[in-house]
Amino acid sequence: MVEQQKHEPEIPYLTRIQVLVAMGATAIILWIVAKLWLHFGNVSLFKWYWDQKDLLLGLALGLTITALSGLAYRFCLPYRKSADYYLEVVLSPLALPDLIWLGLLPGLSEELLFRGVMLPALGLDSVAVIVSSLCFGVLHLSGSQQWPYVIWATIIGLILGFSTLISGNLLVPIVAHITTNWISSYFWKMWKLSQIKN
Cα separation of 135 and 117, whole Å? Predict the structure, then answer.
């Protein structure tokens, strides 16, 4: 009985509608925070513009992050357990077409706040990248046992933050974030569906 309780999630499993509403509400809250910060904080949004080279750079960065995540998942047990818990809660209730929203909503709203507003507000330097990445990591905390996932999200935040500064275009981390979410969630979902069939 005690063993079974150890494996129960710290937050209850959600329905598909609850996950979609939570994603939408989180995206709206992050958007509102970003807008208020821009309005009252005397901050300019980090520039972003359409550029084919930066689009391809974002895609390449997203594929690289996905590959690194796969390696961390394979070789780091604490990260694997933490990621499985997080993905089980978020992805299990969703249908495959819902993964579109899982890419777009966080990819746009989180990049708007953490790289688009927070980086310029904190000074567009290495300290700004580190602080915004720590905040980004903590956003992914869903339970007291989730610190490996938070650490990983912080590392991803560093990669996305420095890619923003180096490229000079917010499009790069937006595309990288959306690409990473789409590919990793799709592969995880297909892996879980194959387990059910077997």
Answer: 13
87: domain range? 2-197
Q: How many domains does the chain have?
A: 1
Q: Is 171:54 a contact under the CB 8 Å cutoff?
A: yes
Neighbours of 12 (CB within 10 A): 8
Query: What's the start-to-end Cα distance of the chain, in Å?
Result: 27
Element (H, E) at 172: helix 171-197
Q: Which of 144, 141, 176 is nearest to 55 (CA)?
A: 176
CA distance 148 to 160: 18
d(CA 10, CA 183): 26
Separation CA 105–CA 103 (nearest Å): 6
Instruction: Tell me 92's DSSP state.
Output: T
pLDDT in tens, 14-56: 889 999 999 999 999 999 999 999 999 989 999 999 999 999 9
pLDDT grade, residue 86 (50/70/90)? Answer: confident
